[in-house]
Amino acid sequence: MRAPSEELPVVFDGVSVTAGLVTILDNIALTLAPGAPTVLIGPNGSGKTTLLRAAMGLVAPTRGRITWGGRENVPPLKRAIVFQRPAMLRRSTGANIRFALRAAGIPRAEHARRTGELLELVGLGSLADRAARRLSGGEQQRLALARALARDPTVLFLDEPTASLDPASTKAVEDIVRAIAARGIKVVMATHDLGEARRLAGDIVFLHRGRVVETGRARTFFQSPQTGEAKTFIAGELLL
Questions:
Q1: What is the CATH number of the domain that holds 82?
Q2: How many Å apart are CA 163 and CA 137, to the nearest integer?
Q3: Three-class SS string for 179-211?
């Protein structure tokens, strides 16, 4: 297990994000603490992706503030994010990892070893020489996870990493997420799949219309939701 991260907790203190007249995040008060994965759920347009981007430091609050380990404006040296549709570089699978290692400032002497370790972790060890853009969708998502891990993050943000993947690829990605969390890396993940949330989450953050409606331990949230919106969403009914 890792030592406590200087990046954690990530604290949203009255954070709002607007774009013109549209409010995307509305007065968010939330603490992302060390521990088991935190999973963000909610209908499309609820603000999950923007919350992840803000936690990463890619989106600045319109109002309020975000702190990392009690500090503001912390460079994201130990944070990483994987988007729903990650871009693959026009090079081999292994070269994608080596590029990420160089970008993270990892000494060149360590690149071969680290590349091999990361590809084995995500089950791509035999595909190091294959063009990354010729990988399947699930393999590309696993490569994106390996690239994110190249910077040795203490916090990893995942934006719907299994969206549009088949069941076998989804299971492979979920297994990697568990392995990452077991290493002491804090995972904060958005998903539209309630089954996935049940399988992976330690904590749930339920968003609707840019607001945090309910938070809690995953088991408690799914067994005894406290708000009408959460009950409706868990039941699979249309949430207006």
A1: 3.40.50.300
A2: 10
A3: HHHHCCCEEEEECCCHHHHHHHCCEEEEEECCE
Question: What is the pTM (predicted TM-score) of this model?
Answer: 0.95
Q: Is residue 131 part of a domain?
A: no
Q: Please provide the DSSP assignment of 13-56 as one string.
A: EEEEEEETTEEEEEEEEEEE-SSSPEEEE-STTSSHHHHHHHHH
Burial 208-238, CB ≥16 within 10 A → b, else e: bbbbbbbbbebeebbeebeeebbebbbeeee
> Which range among 4-13, 108-117, 192-201 shows the weakest confidence by mean pLDDT?
4-13
Total number of domains constituting the chain: 1
Instruction: Check residue 232 and report its DSSP letter.
Output: H
Q: Which two tokens stand for residue 208?
A: 């609707």
> Domain containing 176: what range?
10-87+151-234
Domain membership flag for residue 177: yes
d(CA 69, CA 10): 6
- Give ∠ CA 102-106-110 in degrees, rounded to 5: 105
